[in-house]
Prior knowledge:
Elements lengths: L2 H10 L5 H23 L17 H16 L1 H21 L5 H23 L11 H16 L5
Helix pairs in contact: 1-6, 2-3, 2-4, 2-5, 3-4, 4-6
Amino acid sequence: MNKINSLLNAYGESHKNATNKLIHWICVPAIFFSIVGLVSMIPFPSELIIYKEINLSWALIALLLVLIYYVSLSIPLAVGMFLFSIGCLFLCSKINELTYPFWIYLALFGVSWVFQFIGHNIEGKKPSFLKDVQFLLIGPAWLMHFILKKINISL
Length: 155
C-alpha cells in the first residue's frame, strides 16, 4: 500500500460515525479556509515583492508549501487541493475587504474546532492529529479523495 492510502486509512479509522463524518465535511474545509484567511492578513514585506503583478502573501507561500507536500503524496490529490486553495485565496481576498475579517476567520476557526471535537466525542475516538500532527493536512486530503473517487479519479 502506498503512503497516501496508508495515511487515508489511518485517518479514516477515527472517522467512521456518520455524524462525525458530516461534521468533518463542513468543518475541515472551514478550518482550512479560516487558516488561509488568518495567514492572508499577515502583512507581506513589500521589499520581497519582485513582480508587482503577482500578489504575494504569506498565505500564498504557505499554500505552495502545503501543495508540495500533497504532490509528494499524490498528483491528482494535489490538483484537487490546488483548486480548493485557489478558491480559498479568492474568497479571502473578498472577505479581507470587509471591516472585520480577522474576527470572521477567528470565529469560523473556533466554532469549527468546537464542532470537530463534538464529532469526535460522538465517534468516541480522539482526533488523529493528536497522534501525528501530519494528520492536520490529511483531513482535507481525506475529503478530497472522496470527491476524486466520485468523479472516477484514482490517487
